[in-house]
Amino acid sequence: MKLNRNQFNQQLFGQLQIVFGFIALASLLWYSISSSPPSTPSQYSIPTEIIDQQNNRSQKVMAEQPTQKPREQQFQDQRYSVVEGDTLEAIFLRKKLSIKVLQDILEADEPYLELDVLRPGDHLDFLIDQSNNRLEALSRIVDPSRTVTYQRNEENFMYNETLTPTTKIAEVTRGQIIGSFYVSASSSGLSDKGVMTITQLLKNTLNFKRDLRAGDHFQVVMEREVIDGQSIGKDRLLAARILLRGKEFGAYLHNDGSYYNAKGESLVPALLRYPTRKKYRISSSFNPRRVHPVTGRVKPHNGVDFAMPTGTPIISTGHGRVTRVANHRYAGKYIDIDEFGAYSTRFLHLSKILVRKGQQVERGQVIALSGNTGRSTGPHLHYELHIRSRPVNPMTAKIPMLKSIPNNEIKGFDLHVVDMQNLMLSKEKIVHLNKQHKNQNKQAKLQVQLEQTSMPSSTTSPSAG
Ligand SMILES: [Zn+2]
Question: What is the DSSP letter of 345?
Answer without folding.
Answer: E
